[in-house]
Amino acid sequence: MSTTHIDYLHIEFNAPIQVFEVPAFRGAVIEKAGKEHLAFHNHFNDEKLSYGYPVIQYKRIHGNASIICLDYGASEFHHFFNNKSWDIHIGERPVKLPIKHMLLKQIELKVRQGSFKYNIQNWLAFSQENYQKFQSIGDSAQELEFLKQILIGNIISFAKGMKWQIDQEVIINIQEITNRKLLKYKKQTMLGLDLQFETNVFLPNYIGLGKAVSHGYGIVHYINTNQ
Q1: Measured distance CA(198)–CA(174) in Å, rounded
Q2: Model's pTM, two decimal places?
Q3: Are 218 and 122 spatial neighbours (Cβ–Cβ below 8 Å)?
Q4: Which among 215, 210, 55 is positioned nearest to 123, based on CA atoms?
Protein backbone atom coordinates (compact mmCIF):
# COMPACT_ATOMS: atom_id res chain seq x y z
CA MET A 1 0.00 0.00 0.00
CA SER A 2 1.33 3.40 -0.94
CA THR A 3 -0.25 5.25 1.99
CA THR A 4 -1.51 4.55 5.48
CA HIS A 5 -2.88 6.62 8.35
CA ILE A 6 -1.67 6.62 11.95
CA ASP A 7 -2.48 8.56 15.11
CA TYR A 8 0.21 11.04 16.17
CA LEU A 9 0.45 12.62 19.62
CA HIS A 10 3.09 15.24 20.46
CA ILE A 11 3.30 16.45 24.05
CA GLU A 12 5.79 19.08 25.15
CA PHE A 13 5.89 19.74 28.88
CA ASN A 14 6.92 23.05 30.42
CA ALA A 15 9.84 21.26 32.06
CA PRO A 16 13.40 22.01 30.90
CA ILE A 17 15.72 19.01 30.87
CA GLN A 18 19.21 18.28 29.58
CA VAL A 19 19.96 15.70 26.87
CA PHE A 20 21.61 13.37 29.39
CA GLU A 21 18.42 13.44 31.51
CA VAL A 22 16.17 11.94 28.81
CA PRO A 23 16.73 8.30 29.95
CA ALA A 24 15.83 9.27 33.54
CA PHE A 25 12.75 11.13 32.26
CA ARG A 26 11.79 8.00 30.34
CA GLY A 27 12.19 5.82 33.42
CA ALA A 28 10.11 8.17 35.56
CA VAL A 29 7.23 8.26 33.05
CA ILE A 30 7.29 4.46 32.74
CA GLU A 31 7.13 4.15 36.52
CA LYS A 32 4.23 6.61 36.71
CA ALA A 33 2.26 4.94 33.89
CA GLY A 34 2.92 1.40 35.17
CA LYS A 35 5.43 -1.13 33.86
CA GLU A 36 2.60 -3.48 32.94
CA HIS A 37 1.84 -1.22 29.96
CA LEU A 38 4.40 -2.49 27.44
CA ALA A 39 4.05 0.35 24.92
CA PHE A 40 5.87 2.66 27.35
CA HIS A 41 9.09 0.67 27.47
CA ASN A 42 9.20 -1.97 24.71
CA HIS A 43 10.17 -4.78 27.09
CA PHE A 44 8.22 -8.00 27.52
CA ASN A 45 9.94 -8.41 30.89
CA ASP A 46 13.19 -7.37 32.57
CA GLU A 47 15.19 -9.82 30.47
CA LYS A 48 13.41 -9.84 27.13
CA LEU A 49 13.39 -6.81 24.85
CA SER A 50 10.91 -6.21 22.06
CA TYR A 51 12.76 -5.14 18.92
CA GLY A 52 9.71 -3.54 17.37
CA TYR A 53 9.75 0.15 16.56
CA PRO A 54 8.90 2.12 19.76
CA VAL A 55 5.45 3.71 19.61
CA ILE A 56 6.16 5.93 22.65
CA GLN A 57 9.38 7.94 22.43
CA TYR A 58 10.97 10.25 24.99
CA LYS A 59 12.65 13.44 23.77
CA ARG A 60 14.13 16.81 24.55
CA ILE A 61 12.40 19.24 22.18
CA HIS A 62 12.93 23.00 22.43
CA GLY A 63 14.85 22.21 25.62
CA ASN A 64 11.80 20.65 27.27
CA ALA A 65 10.81 17.13 28.27
CA SER A 66 8.63 15.82 25.44
CA ILE A 67 6.83 12.70 24.27
CA ILE A 68 6.01 11.48 20.77
CA CYS A 69 3.36 8.76 20.51
CA LEU A 70 2.62 6.94 17.27
CA ASP A 71 -0.15 4.59 16.19
CA TYR A 72 -1.59 2.76 19.24
CA GLY A 73 0.95 4.53 21.47
CA ALA A 74 -1.26 7.63 21.26
CA SER A 75 -4.19 5.85 22.94
CA GLU A 76 -1.93 3.98 25.38
CA PHE A 77 -0.59 7.23 26.83
CA HIS A 78 -3.78 7.71 28.82
CA HIS A 79 -2.26 5.38 31.42
CA PHE A 80 0.08 8.26 32.30
CA PHE A 81 -2.62 10.95 32.13
CA ASN A 82 -4.85 8.93 34.47
CA ASN A 83 -2.56 9.75 37.40
CA LYS A 84 -3.80 12.46 39.77
CA SER A 85 -0.28 13.88 39.94
CA TRP A 86 2.17 14.10 37.05
CA ASP A 87 5.07 15.05 39.32
CA ILE A 88 8.14 12.91 38.77
CA HIS A 89 11.77 12.74 39.82
CA ILE A 90 14.59 12.92 37.30
CA GLY A 91 17.40 11.46 39.33
CA GLU A 92 17.14 13.32 42.64
CA ARG A 93 15.49 16.35 41.05
CA PRO A 94 11.71 16.77 41.53
CA VAL A 95 10.04 17.84 38.28
CA LYS A 96 6.49 19.01 37.61
CA LEU A 97 5.09 18.31 34.15
CA PRO A 98 2.58 20.99 33.17
CA ILE A 99 1.72 20.73 29.49
CA LYS A 100 3.11 23.51 27.31
CA HIS A 101 1.95 22.15 23.97
CA MET A 102 -0.10 19.14 22.88
CA LEU A 103 -1.04 18.07 19.38
CA LEU A 104 -3.15 15.03 18.51
CA LYS A 105 -3.92 14.33 14.89
CA GLN A 106 -4.07 11.65 12.26
CA ILE A 107 -1.15 11.59 9.85
CA GLU A 108 -1.00 10.16 6.36
CA LEU A 109 2.23 8.29 5.70
CA LYS A 110 3.01 8.50 2.01
CA VAL A 111 5.62 8.42 -0.73
CA ARG A 112 5.52 11.16 -3.32
CA GLN A 113 7.22 12.13 -6.55
CA GLY A 114 9.01 15.13 -5.03
CA SER A 115 10.95 15.22 -1.80
CA PHE A 116 10.61 16.17 1.84
CA LYS A 117 13.54 17.87 3.57
CA TYR A 118 14.70 16.95 7.09
CA ASN A 119 17.40 17.36 9.70
CA ILE A 120 18.31 14.42 11.91
CA GLN A 121 20.16 15.03 15.17
CA ASN A 122 22.17 12.69 17.38
CA TRP A 123 21.67 9.83 14.92
CA LEU A 124 23.17 6.58 16.19
CA ALA A 125 23.51 4.91 12.84
CA PHE A 126 26.05 2.20 13.43
CA SER A 127 26.24 -1.36 14.59
CA GLN A 128 29.73 -2.45 15.60
CA GLU A 129 30.21 -4.09 12.20
CA ASN A 130 29.08 -1.20 10.01
CA TYR A 131 30.96 1.31 12.18
CA GLN A 132 34.19 -0.47 11.34
CA LYS A 133 33.25 -0.38 7.66
CA PHE A 134 32.45 3.34 7.90
CA GLN A 135 35.79 4.05 9.56
CA SER A 136 37.61 2.38 6.68
CA ILE A 137 36.03 4.66 4.07
CA GLY A 138 38.38 7.42 3.00
CA ASP A 139 36.15 9.22 0.52
CA SER A 140 33.40 11.66 1.56
CA ALA A 141 31.10 10.72 -1.34
CA GLN A 142 31.37 7.05 -0.39
CA GLU A 143 30.65 7.96 3.23
CA LEU A 144 27.40 9.63 2.20
CA GLU A 145 26.44 6.63 0.05
CA PHE A 146 27.14 4.28 2.95
CA LEU A 147 25.04 6.40 5.32
CA LYS A 148 22.27 6.63 2.75
CA GLN A 149 21.85 2.85 2.73
CA ILE A 150 21.68 2.77 6.54
CA LEU A 151 19.11 5.58 6.57
CA ILE A 152 16.97 3.78 3.99
CA GLY A 153 17.01 0.73 6.27
CA ASN A 154 15.98 2.88 9.24
CA ILE A 155 13.04 4.35 7.32
CA ILE A 156 11.88 0.89 6.21
CA SER A 157 12.10 -0.30 9.83
CA PHE A 158 9.93 2.65 10.90
CA ALA A 159 7.41 1.82 8.16
CA LYS A 160 7.23 -1.82 9.24
CA GLY A 161 6.63 -0.69 12.81
CA MET A 162 3.66 1.32 11.54
CA LYS A 163 2.45 -1.71 9.53
CA TRP A 164 3.04 0.28 6.39
CA GLN A 165 4.29 -1.60 3.36
CA ILE A 166 6.21 0.89 1.19
CA ASP A 167 5.68 -0.36 -2.35
CA GLN A 168 7.94 2.19 -4.05
CA GLU A 169 11.67 2.78 -4.05
CA VAL A 170 12.86 4.81 -1.06
CA ILE A 171 14.98 7.65 -2.44
CA ILE A 172 17.35 9.58 -0.18
CA ASN A 173 19.80 12.37 -0.88
CA ILE A 174 22.07 13.37 2.00
CA GLN A 175 23.10 17.00 1.53
CA GLU A 176 25.75 17.13 4.24
CA ILE A 177 26.92 15.84 7.57
CA THR A 178 26.63 18.93 9.76
CA ASN A 179 28.19 17.49 12.91
CA ARG A 180 29.97 14.43 14.26
CA LYS A 181 30.05 13.86 18.01
CA LEU A 182 30.66 11.22 20.64
CA LEU A 183 27.49 10.31 22.56
CA LYS A 184 26.90 8.14 25.61
CA TYR A 185 24.27 5.42 25.44
CA LYS A 186 24.01 2.73 28.12
CA LYS A 187 27.54 3.52 29.33
CA GLN A 188 28.95 3.08 25.82
CA THR A 189 30.51 5.86 23.77
CA MET A 190 29.14 5.91 20.24
CA LEU A 191 29.55 8.14 17.20
CA GLY A 192 26.49 10.33 16.65
CA LEU A 193 25.79 12.31 13.51
CA ASP A 194 23.75 15.38 12.63
CA LEU A 195 22.88 15.64 8.96
CA GLN A 196 20.49 17.10 6.46
CA PHE A 197 18.71 14.94 3.92
CA GLU A 198 15.86 14.77 1.45
CA THR A 199 13.62 11.77 0.84
CA ASN A 200 10.46 10.92 -1.04
CA VAL A 201 9.01 9.38 2.15
CA PHE A 202 6.95 11.54 4.51
CA LEU A 203 8.21 11.21 8.09
CA PRO A 204 6.23 12.58 11.06
CA ASN A 205 7.96 15.45 12.84
CA TYR A 206 10.26 14.52 15.75
CA ILE A 207 10.15 10.75 15.31
CA GLY A 208 13.39 8.89 15.87
CA LEU A 209 15.44 6.86 13.42
CA GLY A 210 18.37 4.56 14.15
CA LYS A 211 19.36 3.19 17.53
CA ALA A 212 17.89 4.25 20.89
CA VAL A 213 15.04 6.27 19.42
CA SER A 214 12.91 5.80 22.55
CA HIS A 215 15.70 7.49 24.54
CA GLY A 216 15.69 10.61 22.37
CA TYR A 217 18.36 9.82 19.79
CA GLY A 218 18.02 10.27 16.03
CA ILE A 219 15.34 12.99 16.16
CA VAL A 220 14.00 13.88 12.72
CA HIS A 221 12.84 17.45 12.16
CA TYR A 222 10.89 18.48 9.07
CA ILE A 223 12.21 21.56 7.27
CA ASN A 224 9.37 23.60 5.79
CA THR A 225 10.69 24.90 2.49
CA ASN A 226 7.45 26.77 1.71
CA GLN A 227 8.04 29.52 4.26
Answers
A1: 6
A2: 0.91
A3: yes
A4: 210
